[in-house]
From TrEMBL:
Phosphopantothenate--cysteine ligase: annotated span: 11-223
Gene: coaBC
Function of the molecule: Catalyzes two sequential steps in the biosynthesis of coenzyme A. In the first step cysteine is conjugated to 4'-phosphopantothenate to form 4-phosphopantothenoylcysteine. In the second step the latter compound is decarboxylated to form 4'-phosphopantotheine.
Domain DNA/pantothenate metabolism flavoprotein C-terminal: 7-218
Identification of the protein by name: Coenzyme A biosynthesis bifunctional protein CoaBC
Binding site for CTP: 98, 108, 125-128, 144, 158, 162
UniProt family annotation: In the C-terminal section; belongs to the PPC synthetase family.
Lineage: Bacteria, Pseudomonadati, Pseudomonadota, Alphaproteobacteria, Sphingomonadales
Length: 223
């Protein structure tokens, strides 16, 4: 029916930051609030889809009708994403940490009075790129790109290099007077698909989510 156009479709969304543990009481994190990803999950569920939301540590309520899987680290997020496939579409909004600590300390690291400890980092798996290359690649795969300069050029390159269908590029460097995009309620994005760039006017994260889900619906319901 008209108001549940995504009925029968499974949509996977990742959202929020990841926390990379240093020891039992410390972690590395980033400023992602999860608001944009949760809004997309909410909009997809409202359009009738079955939605799996793989969420990093955030203080947000689960949107109605959404199946939520909570994770902490990038490695946990990668495993949860793999377990959630297959999906008709995936929208990877999470700000996954690029690095984790190479060795997790089983006990709280103590001040030793001399030099501070060095954090040795290891690269995290690129979840989006591995979904793009997997045999279970969704029909429509959407990545996000937080950029502070040459937003459209960088995101256009990222679309190709990651092997995804669309990139939603957001200008996180924009001074909007509201504390920035990360944690804020507004977003200014560009939707980049093959050979096409759409510049969307500044709008709420809910409005970005609704418009993106409309676009996804066009693709997912055309056979
Ligand atoms: O390369 P960059 O981190 O800018 O790419 C951002 C996109 O890739 C986002 O969609 C993000 O969710 C995804 N990503 C991922 N796993 C990573 C890093 C990024 O899924 N380890």
């Amino acid at each position: 029916p008209e108001h549940r156009p995504l009925f029968g479709k499974h949509i996977l969304v990742t959202a929020g930051p990841t926390h990379e543990p240093i020891d039992p009481v410390r972690f590395i994190a980033n400023r992602s609030s999860g608001k944009q990803g949760f809004a997309i999950a909410a909009a997809a569920a409202a359009a009738g889809a079955r939605v799996t939301l793989v969420a990093g540590p955030v203080a947000l309520a689960t949107p109605p009708g959404v199946d939520r899987v909570d994770v902490e680290s990038a490695q946990e997020m990668a495993a949860a994403v793999k377990a959630a496939l297959p999906a008709d579409a995936a929208v990877m909004v999470a700000a996954v940490a690029d690095w984790r600590t190479k060795d997790f300390a089983q006990e709280k690291i103590k001040k030793r009075g001399s030099a501070p400890p060095a954090l040795i980092l290891a690269e995290n798996p690129d979840i989006l790129a591995s979904v793009a290359g997997s045999r279970q690649r969704p029909k429509l795969l959407v990545g996000f790109a937080a950029e502070t300069e040459n937003v459209v050029d960088n995101a256009t390159r990222k679309r190709k290099s990651k092997g995804v269908d669309w990139i939603v590029a957001n200008d996180v460097g924009q001074a909007d007077g509201k504390g920035g995009v990360m944690g804020g309620d507004e977003n200014t994005v560009h939707l980049i698909s093959e050979g096409k760039v759409e510049d969307w006017e500044p709008m709420s994260k809910q409005a970005v989510a609704r418009r993106l889900v409309e676009r996804m619906t066009e693709v997912l319901t055309s056979e």
